[in-house]
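Protocol step 4 of 5: obtain the predicted structure for the target chain.
Materials: sequence only (see below). No template structures provided, no constraints applied. The aim of this step is simply to have a reference model before the mutagenesis design in step 5. Sequence pasted as it appears in the construct record:
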Amino acid sequence: MRLAFDHLLSISIGIAMVVLVLESARARSDELNDKMRRLSLLTAASTQTLSVRDVLEQVLGHLVESLGATHGIVRLLEGQDKAAQLVARASVGFQQAYLQKHERVAVAEPWVQRVLQKDCCLCVWTKGWIRENAPGWKRAA
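Step 4 output (structure tokens):
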């Protein structure tokens, strides 16, 4: 009787492992299907519009959603030398007042120089202040 119980327990554990593997494969498949759906939507959107701004906003919207973020902004470099600026061309989640106030950022700003030199950092935005020493802050190489 005890031997039969041991075999039954072993079979149950084996079935549980198979179910676990199949469930993780299904979750991964769902994730890949979602990414493919987003790629198809982006491809269709880019063929339907000739506006760079519309395409940027759609790509940014999908990227923000994919990352589980609430805000995102695309800035393009305009001008040359000391007159160069990063100009907001697409955004998600920002209020219009913020975008108007911070639409253009001078390239001379220290944080912009770090970004352009690919010495980027992730910052936490808390109550109107960017804190580089916030918990979870990391400097990217």
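Step 4 remarks: Confidence is low (pLDDT under 50) at residues 129-141. The radius of gyration is 24 Å.
Proceed to step 5.
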